């Protein structure tokens, strides 16, 4: 009997020890999990997308040849959480580590990409308001032959919409003609400009300040083509979009684009308006507060 009691006592002690070990292990796992989560959160919070222009003497490790590669002054880099071994699964050209142990994911020297980033950065500082010519011109964009990109604006004292090149430095007209009577039409001026064009247009409607949203709204967006030499007042619809319902949102965006063949004196223009039971057609709900809300453009493909 004494032996059985001793064995029972040893069993109880062993059970208590095992129970304590399991408790300790459970607590340790919880603490370890919390530490891993904190490290993960801290690491993620450090992944800030910051534009970095590397100096000409900056070097980077190329994963494919495993040596030091010089990145030019026009390289585009952002901070990232990737390492050199991750390069093959990304679209970056190089991954480098700075002296402060910050990983940078980089694209090769590309002046066009850099110009885009600098233009967007400058736009952010001016709150999308054009305040004069940009110090860095997007020549690849603005110097395309037979091309135009326009932003919408309202004429003073009325709600008539016009297209302009003065709202932002990315707008332009090159080798095409913008009508000066209504500032709405783009024309191919000569035979050399004949060919296939990509034509595109976007409009943004805002009904938030109006009670008309209580009525069923319909938005119509049309791209038209005409030929000035034929003296025809009725243009040809080449692209059209219609949207709207009783339950639609108070803000709506409509976009159209397509390829069309144009000859000398062909004119392209766009129309957009809203309709309801209370108002037949109107442009006054087109939101022109930002130049990026509405644009119209075309460029020659061949």
Automatic annotation (TrEMBL):
GO biological process: immune response
UniProt superkingdom: Eukaryota
Residues in THD domain copies: 163-301
GO cellular component, one term: membrane
GO MF terms, alphabetically ordered: cytokine activity; tumor necrosis factor receptor binding
Regions crossing the membrane: 21-42
Subcellular location(s) of the protein: Membrane
Keywords linked to the UniProt accession: Cytokine, Membrane, Transmembrane, Transmembrane helix
Family: Belongs to the tumor necrosis factor family.
Protein name, as recorded: THD domain-containing protein
């Amino acid at each position: 009997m004494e032996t059985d009691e001793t064995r029972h006592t040893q069993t109880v002690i062993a059970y208590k020890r095992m129970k304590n070990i399991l408790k300790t292990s459970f607590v340790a796992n919880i603490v370890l999990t919390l530490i891993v989560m904190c490290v993960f959160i801290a690491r993620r919070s450090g992944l800030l997308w910051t534009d970095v222009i590397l100096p000409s003497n900056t070097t980077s490790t190329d994963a494919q040849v495993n040596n030091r590669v010089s990145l030019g002054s026009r390289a585009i880099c952002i901070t990232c959480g990737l390492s050199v071994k991750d390069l093959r699964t990304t679209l970056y050209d190089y991954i480098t580590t700075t002296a402060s142990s910050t990983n940078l994911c980089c694209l090769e020297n590309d002046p066009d990409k850099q110009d885009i980033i600098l233009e967007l950065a400058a736009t952010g500082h001016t709150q999308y308001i054009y305040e004069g010519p940009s110090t860095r011109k997007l020549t690849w964009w603005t110097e395309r032959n037979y091309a135009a990109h326009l932003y919408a604006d309202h004429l003073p004292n009325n709600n008539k919409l016009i297209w302009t090149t003065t709202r932002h430095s990315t707008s332009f007209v090159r080798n095409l003609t913008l009508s000066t009577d209504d500032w709405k039409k783009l024309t191919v001026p000569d035979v050399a400009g004949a060919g296939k064009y990509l034509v595109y247009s976007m409009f943004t409607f805002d009904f938030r300040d109006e009670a008309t949203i209580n009525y069923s709204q319909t938005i119509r967006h049309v791209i038209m083509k005409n030929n000035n030499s034929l003296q025809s007042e009725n243009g040809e619809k080449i692209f059209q979009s219609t949207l709207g319902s009783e339950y639609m949102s108070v803000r709506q965006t409509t976009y159209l684009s397509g390829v069309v063949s144009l000859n000398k004196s062909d004119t392209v223009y766009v129309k957009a308006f809203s309709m309801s039971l209370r108002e037949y057609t109107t442009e006054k709900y087109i939101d022109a507060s930002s130049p990026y809300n509405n644009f119209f453009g075309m460029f020659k493909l061949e």
